[in-house]
Write a structure and sequence with these properties.
alpha+beta; Immunoglobulin-like; 2 domains; seven-stranded antiparallel beta sheet; five-stranded antiparallel beta sheet; 5 helices; 20% helix; rod-shaped; signal; transmembrane helix; ZP_dom; ZP-C; ZP-C_dom
Length: 395
């Protein structure tokens, strides 16, 4: 009877004008299960949804759920949502160390594999915590079980971006933990001016060789916890780098002499530019089409300078070779860069020059023939006159 009274007294939770009791739960009133918490690992926030009816059934209410022992910050309290079935308590906090409602940030490092095999230090961050129940019972014993709901989000901090527009991947609900991604916050854009105000519109016949291509990789709606650092940018003939001829614009401290880095690892955008070139194996094509790819590291402002040091990462010289490791189709979206090879225009000039030379040669040859014929004609006339005079003397 005492337990029933406790349930009745603690099963009412008022948020604004909404009230929820155990009678409102109906079939959702049951014992807690580990699947009662759903985790959404977003790009700027982590969102938790906890079914409230099992909590009420156990003898607590939403106000007795404490996120990582943070009780004095209203931004870390839950909000009742009865618009869904079953009703839930929602928690949402930003991905910023020191302001993530007491969540733990653990950054780990491991050697890169696959497309990241050039780098000896690939980082990922795991953000975790727990929602605990607070038992208000005063005394020596309690009949309420302690509730603990753990959550965890793992974010890689290295990404391959190789197009000017990326599909924003939706974050699906996960049970207790999930691998998150910041990829949807990243974009790569091409510009035609050093002020990055005029987007580069690729002409159908390509841009002129040696035209500067200004590249910007930026993060939007990304937590201020991280800056953008370009580890490697390269071009390849095929949209998917696997088994494709490629050229490194830069890898770590190995930068092509014609690539200029303007900003890297100092904010949530990185900028560089390079002159348009062509691949030699495309010399017989009117337009040399190739694809730009960048490997991006997200690093905390205090650690970005460490990764910019040449000794902290592997280096590969900028050269043209063949990529051995592949990239899955789902992670590669491309927009081509088109450069004029000048083959066609040179051929026309050469053809025009050849035609003019041929015409000149024909004219010179015709002049010589005419001159020879004139000389032969004059010689014949002189010979005839000489014979005529001799015959006249003999007669």
């Amino acid at each position: 009877m005492a337990l029933l009274c406790l349930l009745i007294l603690t099963a009412v939770w008022i948020v604004g004008r909404e009230a929820l009791s155990i009678s409102d739960c109906g079939a959702y009133a049951r014992r807690p299960e580990y699947t009662d918490i759903a985790v959404v690992c977003g790009t700027s926030t982590i969102d938790l949804a906890l079914q409230i009816c099992p909590v009420i059934y156990t003898g607590y209410n939403g106000s007795l759920l404490i996120l990582n022992h943070i009780r004095d910050d209203p931004n870390c309290h839950g909000t009742l949502d009865t618009s869904v079935a079953p009703p839930v308590v929602r928690f949402s906090f930003p991905i910023r160390e020191g302001n993530a409602c007491g969540s733990n940030f653990l950054t780990t490092s491991a050697p890169g594999t696959g497309i990241f095999s050039d780098f000896s230090n690939i980082q990922s961050v795991n953000i975790s915590g727990v929602i605990r129940s607070h038992d208000p019972t005063m005394g020596t014993i309690t009949y309420n079980a302690e509730l603990m709901y753990f959550y965890s989000c793992a974010y890689p901090l290295e990404y391959l971006v190789n197009n000017t527009q990326l599909d924003v991947s939706s974050s699906s609900i996960a049970v207790t933990d999930k691998n998150g991604s910041f990829i949807s916050t990243l974009s790569m854009s091409l510009y035609q001016d050093i002020y990055y105000t005029k987007p580069l519109v690729m002409p159908p016949l390509g841009i002129e060789l040696r035209t500067n291509v200004y590249v910007q990789v930026a993060a939007s709606n990304l937590t201020s916890q991280y800056f953008v650092l370009l580890d490697r940018c390269y071009t390849s003939i095929n949209p998917h780098p696997s088994n494709s001829t490629f050229f490194n614009l830069f890898v770590s401290c190995s930068i092509d002499q014609l690539t200029t880095m303007l900003e890297n690892g100092d904010s949530q955008k990185a900028r560089f530019y390079f002159p348009a070139f062509r691949f030699i194996e495309q010399q017989n094509e009117t337009v040399s089409t190739y694809y730009l790819h960048c490997i991006i590291r997200l690093c905390e402002p205090s650690t970005c300078s460490t990764f910019k040091q040449c000794t902290s990462r592997k280096r590969r010289s900028a050269e043209t070779t063949v990529v051995q490791s592949g990239v899955t189709d789902t992670s590669v979206l491309t927009v081509p860069i088109k450069a004029k090879t000048e083959t066609a225009s040179l051929s026309k000039e050469q053809a025009l020059s050849g035609d003019q030379s041929a015409n000149k040669a024909a004219s010179v040859g015709l002049g010589i023939v005419v001159a020879v014929l004139v000389l032969v004609g004059v010689a014949a006339i002189l010979t005839a006159l000489s014979l005529y005079r001799k015959l006249k003397r003999l007669s």
